[in-house]
């Protein structure tokens, strides 16, 4: 039969559970992120919230009553768990004093789940394997804790050692727990070295409507420090039961030397009275006066022994010392868990807890590390856009006709080069004519005319013109524009591509040599072309023109014979002078043109070729570097955006879920206690008037009862045990009491 409470639980589960998916996805994104991008502090808090929200929705969905047991080490908590479960829970009592919580609930088969702060989970079926695993984990945790202490770091396992165990779920056949659906939670011992376990408990059970049992041995009841941390936990729970663990086998020494029963045997209530009147602190007194704290003296060892024993049907049950107080404690505990007060607290605190956890989620989504990550992503995006702008500029530069630009430089330099060549050639022509005339007036050989006069003067013209071209080119390149006049948009693209045109121009100038523009000047006149006058003897002896030249100039291949002035006049004359000048004029016109062309080709054109090739190489290298950088930026940006996308989705879903929780609060927040267990018709979420309508009340069953079985039909009984998974690694959704 569906009650208003069970309907609320269904609606709560449908509203809040969906937030676990974006939390899990955000955690996965942070886990997969590299380095600090994973924001360890945010992931640690998200993992913590994921655990806490998972526990809350599972608790509400299955309407579980959590009963927390806490107290100093060796105070009797495990013995009390045996008594409450009605089953020998060796799996709990044998675990090392690990600072995690142990959840004990009923299942048809024995199975254990170990959950870590990282979110990983392992499954065990063998208690000894579980014990060995936890024992090894305890040693690892202790080592990590010592490292943190040495480094003066406040240890937080969710950040500094996520492999640490967060909780252990123990599922085994436990008769009374099977009937009640209650979950016993064994907490870390107080005053242990690893006190962070209590910090986690404080977070997980704030506003949880759970009741707590504080166990303390009678020997420690009057020690003030025993209750210091207990007082910090008073406000966390709707009801607290203080169980004073007695040892009713104790004896005292009498004056005559005999052993007599101790006060714990004879009158344990006197111990409680003395504690209440003499040692109880003000916070404890206030809790007792408000009805939230009750004290029970119990011999837990005897009570557990009785609960686990099977009395013979033939013999009447024998009274056991300490059982009466345990029965009173168990009856009060059962009555509270069955009370409408608890149900109201369960409903209201579940809503408040959900609201608080969602507020914590909002706080994580607004974490300064996430803001820094968002700023970093924006900066990366700006860099990406800048790199894309540079790449587009390079594409335009590569498409630009650089040869045409340098052709314009050639055309710009051509007029001044031609003008200088004209002036130099005119001066050279005059000088060559003067050298020929001077040769006719000297005894110098024809070889001397060629090698000592004419070739040096022609070479001087070549060097002068080449030097002028090189100097003119340098003058154009030196200002830093490589000698080019470019459109403003090309200049902007060069700046974007980080290409220095002036540097490129100087580099291109340095890559060529002026000597390459200098040719090898050959003899402008061959002696065979010069006419020689024959004398009478030459005619008589039939000497040929060639023979006459050889007699005059010497070996024609090396005409080094000295020729006196009068002989030059007699044998060469004006006709030879005219031939020499004509041959020289023919050579000069060709030589001057070739020199100008060679200067252009080896200087201006070679410079343009070097510059164009250098520009192409630079652009290719820039584009390759920008491509690599752009890919790095895109990868980094996508990784950050993936994380931020999950966090943004989480924030949006958190807002949606908060709206749903607000609707549940409006619909159920003011429900009268008695109506929570009344049946309701099937259908969707009731309206406020429907909630106010009173139907027939249902009887209240017992959640825990020392003697009677609980009644069927109570919503808190409607918990089916979760099937045991087969795999060693299991999903969190397989747990019913996470």
CATH superfamily of the domain at 63-338 and 703-718: P-loop containing nucleotide triphosphate hydrolases
The description of the largest β-sheet is:
9 strands, mixed
End-to-end distance: 26 Å
CATH level 1 name of the domain at 63-338 and 703-718: Alpha Beta
Query: Residue ranges: pLDDT <50 for 5 or more in a row?
Result: 312-320, 684-738
The total strand number stands at 11
The percent range for strand residues is: 5-15%
Overall mean pLDDT stands at 80
Individual helix count: 26
Strand order of the largest sheet: 4-3-5-2-6-1-7-8-11
CATH fold-type name of the domain at 63-338 and 703-718: Rossmann fold
Radius of gyration: 53 Å
Secondary structure: helix percent: 55-70%
Q: Which structural class fits the helix and strand makeup?
A: alpha/beta
CATH architecture of the domain at 63-338 and 703-718: 3-Layer(aba) Sandwich
* Inertia-based shape: rod-shaped
Notes on the structure:
- Helix 1 (4-16) packs antiparallel against helix 25, helix 16 runs antiparallel to helix 25 (573-668) and helix 17 packs across helix 20 (488-496).
- This protein is of the alpha/beta class.
- It is built from 26 helices and eleven strands.
- Among the domains are: 63-338 and 703-718, P-loop containing nucleotide triphosphate hydrolases (Rossmann fold); 400-610, no CATH class.
- The protein is rod-shaped and about 180 Å long.
- The longest helix is centred in the last third of the chain and has 96 residues, at 573-668.
- Mean pLDDT is 80; it is low at 312-320 and 684-738.
- A nine-stranded mixed beta sheet has the order 4-3-5-2-6-1-7-8-11. A two-stranded antiparallel ribbon has the order 9-10.
């Amino acid at each position: 039969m569906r009650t208003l409470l069970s309907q609320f639980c269904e609606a709560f589960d449908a509203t809040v559970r969906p937030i676990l998916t974006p939390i899990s996805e955000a955690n996965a994104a942070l886990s997969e992120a590299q380095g600090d991008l994973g924001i360890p502090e945010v992931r640690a808090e998200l993992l913590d919230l994921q655990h806490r929200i998972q526990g809350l929705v599972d608790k509400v969905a299955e309407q579980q009553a959590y009963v927390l047991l806490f107290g100093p080490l060796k105070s009797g908590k495990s013995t009390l768990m045996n008594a409450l479960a009605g089953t020998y829970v060796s799996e709990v009592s044998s675990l090392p004093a690990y600072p995690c919580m142990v959840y004990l609930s009923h299942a048809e088969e024995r199975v254990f789940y170990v959950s870590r702060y990282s979110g990983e989970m392992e499954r065990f079926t063998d208690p000894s394997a579980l014990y060995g695993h936890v024992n090894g984990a305890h040693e690892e945790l202790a080592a990590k804790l010592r490292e943190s202490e040495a480094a003066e770091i406040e240890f937080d396992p969710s950040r500094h050692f996520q492999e640490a165990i967060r909780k252990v779920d123990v599922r085994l056949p436990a008769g009374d727990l099977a009937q009640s659906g209650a979950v016993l939670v064994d907490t870390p011992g107080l005053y242990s070295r690893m006190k962070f376990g209590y910090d986690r408990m404080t977070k997980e059970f704030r506003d949880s409507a759970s009741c707590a049992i504080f166990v303390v041995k009678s020997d420690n009841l009057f020690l003030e420090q025993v209750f210091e941390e207990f007082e910090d936990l008073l406000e966390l729970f709707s009801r607290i039961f203080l169980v004073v663990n007695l040892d009713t086998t104790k004896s005292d020494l009498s004056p005559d030397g005999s052993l007599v029963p101790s006060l714990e045997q004879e009158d344990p209530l006197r111990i409680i009275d003395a504690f209440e009147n003499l040692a109880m602190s003000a916070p404890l007194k206030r809790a007792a006066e408000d009805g939230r704290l009750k004290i029970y003296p119990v011999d837990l060892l005897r009570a557990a022994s009785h609960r686990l024993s099977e009395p013979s049907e033939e013999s009447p049950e024998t009274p056991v010392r300490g059982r009466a107080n345990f029965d009173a404690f168990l009856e009060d505990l059962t009555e509270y868990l069955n009370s409408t007060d608890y149900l109201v607290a369960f409903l209201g605190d579940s809503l408040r807890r959900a609201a608080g956890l969602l507020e914590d989620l909002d706080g994580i989504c607004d974490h300064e590390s996430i803001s820094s990550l968002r700023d970093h992503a924006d900066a990366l995006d700006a860099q990406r856009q800048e790199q894309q702008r540079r790449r587009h500029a390079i594409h335009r530069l590569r498409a630009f006709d650089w040869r045409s630009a340098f052709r314009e430089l050639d055309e710009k330099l051509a007029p001044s080069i031609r003008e200088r060549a004209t002036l130099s050639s005119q001066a050279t022509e005059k000088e060559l004519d003067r050298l020929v005339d001077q040769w006719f007036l000297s005894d110098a050989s024809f070889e001397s005319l060629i090698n000592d006069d004419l070739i040096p003067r022609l070479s001087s013209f070549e060097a002068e013109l080449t030097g002028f071209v090189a100097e003119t080119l340098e003058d154009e390149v030196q200002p830093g524009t490589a000698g080019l006049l470019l459109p403003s948009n090309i200049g902007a693209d060069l700046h974007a591509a980080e290409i220095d045109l002036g540097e490129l121009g100087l580099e291109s100038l340095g890559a060529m040599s002026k000597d390459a523009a200098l040719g090898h000047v050959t003899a402008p006149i061959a002696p065979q072309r010069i006419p020689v006058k024959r004398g009478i003897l030459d005619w008589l002896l039939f000497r040929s023109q060639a023979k006459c030249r050889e007699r005059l100039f010497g070996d024609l291949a090396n005409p080094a014979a000295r020729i006196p002035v009068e002989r030059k006049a007699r044998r060469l004359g004006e006709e030879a002078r005219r031939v020499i000048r004509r041959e020289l004029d023919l050579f000069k016109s060709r030589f001057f043109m070739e020199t100008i062309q060679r200067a252009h080709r080896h200087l201006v054109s070679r410079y343009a070729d070097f510059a164009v090739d250098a520009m192409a190489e630079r652009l290719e290298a820039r584009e390759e570097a920008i491509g690599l950088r752009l890919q790095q930026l895109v990868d980094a940006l996508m990784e950050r955006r993936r994380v931020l996308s999950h966090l943004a989705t989480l924030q949006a879903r958190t807002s949606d879920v908060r709206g749903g929780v607000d609707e549940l609060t409006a619909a159920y927040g003011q429900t009268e206690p008695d109506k929570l267990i009344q049946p309701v018709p099937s259908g969707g979420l009731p309206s406020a008037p429907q909630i106010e309508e009173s139907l027939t009340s249902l009887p209240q069953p017992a959640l825990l009862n020392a003697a009677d079985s609980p009644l069927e039909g109570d919503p808190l009984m409607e918990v089916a045990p979760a099937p045991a998974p087969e795999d060693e690694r299991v999903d969190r959704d397989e747990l019913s009491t996470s």
